[in-house]
Amino acid sequence: MSEKIRVSLWGMPGSGKTTLGKALAERLSITYYDLDELVLQRTGKSPSEWIEQDGESVFRIKESETLNYFLNNQQGSYVLSTGGGTVLKQENREKLLSLTKCVYLRCSVQTLEKRISGQNSRRPLLESSGEALHKILTSLLEKRKPFYACAHLSFDNDSSLKDEFVKKLMEKIKLV
87-124: per-residue pLDDT in tens? Predict the structure, then answer.
């Protein structure tokens, strides 16, 4: 592969960034990275630990530092799953937009609720259930939508048709 392929996936927790990112990277035979995992490797603390122990604002600083380090030092092709709030910071959005093909994975609040409720991972910002979780997700999505909308491409991901998504995305990347 002569041209570098660099894709970043944006979206809410539960939008499928990890699942689809891994599938896309595998299909393209390139490396997959998860920003949350990179934060853990670089700082020794997971995003959940940062948020619980130091607050979301401190975590966002560590997340941005990790993202900058990654983007400045990664040489090859890759797929990067960002954290749900990574793109809230203008400098993160600008850097991702200039260095990667940015893809927003859109999902309904109902889909996000279903997926998050079925996961075992810790999400301090979403530790609620039922109507409370619905309200939190609705509020977060409304706040983040304008930032997600800056991505080069958007895909609806309410279904779980991974292979179909990967095929469509590969076609679109070539056109962008």
Answer: 999 999 999 999 999 999 999 998 888 887 755 455 55
In CATH, what number does 6-160 get?
3.40.50.300
Secondary structure of the chain in HEC code, one letter for each residue = CCCCCEEEEECCCCCCHHHHHHHHHHHHCCEEEEHHHHHHHHHCCCHHHHHHHHCHHHHHHHHHHHHHHHHHHCCCCEEEECCCCHHHCHHHHHHHHHHCEEEEEECCHHHHHHHHHCCCCCCHHHCCCHHHHHHHHHHHHHHHHHHHCCCCEEEECCCCCHHHHHHHHHHHHHHC
pLDDT in tens, 57-74: 999 999 999 999 999 999
Could you tell me the residue ranges of all domains in the chain? 6-160
Is the pTM of the predicted complex or chain greater than 0.85?
yes
pLDDT, residue 175, reads 45
